[in-house]
Amino acid sequence: MKKRIALVTGGFTGESVISLKSAAMVETQIDREKYDVYKILIYPGDWYHQTADGQKVPVDLNDFSIAIQGSKITFDGVFNILHGSPGEDGKLAGYFDMIGLPYTTCDALTSAITMNKGYTKAIVQDIPELFVARSVQLFKKSELDPTQLLKELRLPLFVKPNNGGSSIGMSKVKDPNELQEALDKAFAEDTQVLVEEFVSGREFSIGVYHSQGQTTVLPATEIVSSKEFFDFEAKYAPGITEEITPGRMSDEEVQRVNRIVSQVYQKLNCKGAVRIDYFLEYETGKFYFIEINTVPGQTETSLISQQVRAIGKTVKEFYSELIEEMFQK
Question: Is this prediction's pTM over 0.85?
Answer without folding.
Answer: yes
